[in-house]
Amino acid sequence: MRNRREILAAAAVGIAAPALLRRAWAQQDAIEIGSLVSLSGTFANIGEQVDIGSKVAFDYYKTAAGKPLRYVQMDDQGDPGRAVRLTQDAIRDRGIRFFMNCTNSAIALAVAKEVANSGGVYINQAGADEMTGSLCNKNTFRWPVATYSAVNTTVRPFMKQFPDAKKWYTITGQYVFGDSLLKNLKDVLGELGGQHIGNSYHSLSDREYSGFITAAIAAQPDVLCICNFGSQTIDVLRQAVSFGMKRNTKIVVVWSTGLDQFQSLGPDICEGVYFGANYWHGVDTPGNRLLSGVIKEKLKVTPSYLLTAGWACTQATVEALNKAGSTDVPAVIKAFETLSFEGPTGLEKVRAEDHQVLKDYYLLLGKPKAKMRDKDDYVEVLSAEKAFLSPDKTGCKL
């Protein structure tokens, strides 16, 4: 398996040019698309992979609406305020109207508001329900599912399989995304007769979780549910397993990033753990076969969720531009709202009422090392389901 440095080198096709070249860009009549990615800060490992997946997709598609595409990398450093300033600069100085990507929900929500105010278009990977709920807007679209969908497509089938696993303890990231997962989990537990017996919050900067895990063990739960994101998910799970929690407690990770996390954890930690995921490379769909072929040819790796997320937002933008046949923003928004395309998870459709992409979410179970068919075969796919709030219940008013 190639390491992250090698992958970054292979994908180093980003754009960096001074304002003096703006006239030359205009003459080339390219469609510039700004990509918000965290290349430093807490979630840099996530931003780097999303960035790479986006670049590979740009290199593959090359054009949209009959014009060349140009990728404009914007390092927000994990800071919503910086992300907004970069977006403002891109709109003012370069006239960019199309944006994509994010590293966390707080950044995406801030950028979505700015892009809407400027009359642009933005598609992102935020998980917080508010993105296509109470804070939705007509200019913004979301590719992955909301936390509502993630919780309902993982916790419901899990509880059906283990009806006696009633007592749940959570370790939650104290940020927008973590709180959104926790709220939805409590709702499902309340409906299905589960008990939420305790929660430990951690901050965005925490790396040591032994105190939280000790509190979880003392509560004697049937299930430990991890409600956070990225490297913090890896750290919490690794430490929970090292404390022996798998012996007496089932572990559910509601939102994983899939393969890259499994590779970091290794099969011994993943075995017997239940993971929710937006994507799994083993799914046999036309869109995934295309994506997998391109990623393997360009990067010599199996596609992960993070690479796929960058690809998917690029693909959706290209599909909408091609359907509109122009870069006119109202026309592109209208095209987005009626978009249906072969995406990485199968046939993916945009719901016009809230701009959510309707797609499958997966419940995965970590395999024993002895049952892995190849080096990337970490999990068994237990289910692939869609679970979305009806538009009249999301709180979205476009």
From TrEMBL:
Q: Which domain of life is it from?
A: Bacteria
Q: InterPro entries, alphabetically?
A: BCAA_transport, Leu-bd, Peripla_BP_I, TAT_signal
| GO biological process per UniProt | amino acid transport
Q: Which PROSITE patterns match?
A: TAT
Which CDD domains did the record assign?
Answer: PBP1_SBP-like (cd20378)
Provide the alphabetized UniProt keywords.
Amino-acid transport, Signal, Transport
List each copy of the Leucine-binding protein domain by range. 31-364
SUPFAM superfamilies in the record, alphabetically?
Answer: Periplasmic binding protein-like I (SSF53822)
Family according to the record: Belongs to the leucine-binding protein family.
Q: What is this protein called?
A: Branched-chain amino acid ABC transporter substrate-binding protein
The record lists the organism as: Bradyrhizobium nitroreducens
Species lineage: Bacteria, Pseudomonadati, Pseudomonadota, Alphaproteobacteria, Hyphomicrobiales
